[in-house]
């Protein structure tokens, strides 16, 4: 059985318990509706962010755990003396091949 108010009775909203309960129920329904709207759709952005975090994290773990096989070559600074290039020797002159001898 539902509660029906007396239409001739004056209700003071500040003191009436029924009005407060109805307002609380209305507010709870609105909050539940908003929560249902917010959680019903799966967004693309959270999926994209999760994939990006996994890729970056995997790369960082791989790059720190992977053993290095090569040794870095020492580097020189720009303040060192320039290298002098030695001229390449000129090749020795070649003699043309001798003509075949015929009889």
Keywords:
single chain, 103 residues, mainly alpha, 2 helices, rod-shaped
Distance between the termini: 137 Å
Number of strands: 0
Radius of gyration: 45 Å
Order of helices and strands: HH
Tell me, briefly, the overall form.
Answer: rod-shaped
| Strand proportion | under 5%
Average pLDDT, all residues: 76
Largest sheet, described in full? none
Total number of helices: 2
Give me a quick take on this structure:
By secondary structure, the chain is mainly alpha-helical. The chain has helices spanning 17-40, 44-65.
If you had to describe this structure to a student in words, what would you say it looks like?
This protein is mainly alpha-helical and 103 residues long. The chain has a domain at 17-65. Helix content is 45%, strand content 0%. The chain has two helices and no strands. The protein has helices spanning 17-40, 44-65. The longest helix has 24 residues, at 17-40. The radius of gyration is 45 Å and the shape is rod-shaped. The termini are far apart. The model has no long low-confidence stretch (mean pLDDT 76).
């Amino acid at each position: 059985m539902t509660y029906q108010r007396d239409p001739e009775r004056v209700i003071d909203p500040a003191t009436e318990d029924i009005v407060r309960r109805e307002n609380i129920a209305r507010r709870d329904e609105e909050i539940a509706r908003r929560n249902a709207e917010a959680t019903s759709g799966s967004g693309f952005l959270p999926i994209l962010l999760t994939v990006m975090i996994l890729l970056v994290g995997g790369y960082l773990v791989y790059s720190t755990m992977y053993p290095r096989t090569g040794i870095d070559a020492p580097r020189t600074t720009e303040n060192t003396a320039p290298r002098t290039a030695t001229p390449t020797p000129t090749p020795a002159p070649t003699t043309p091949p001798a003509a075949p001898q015929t009889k």
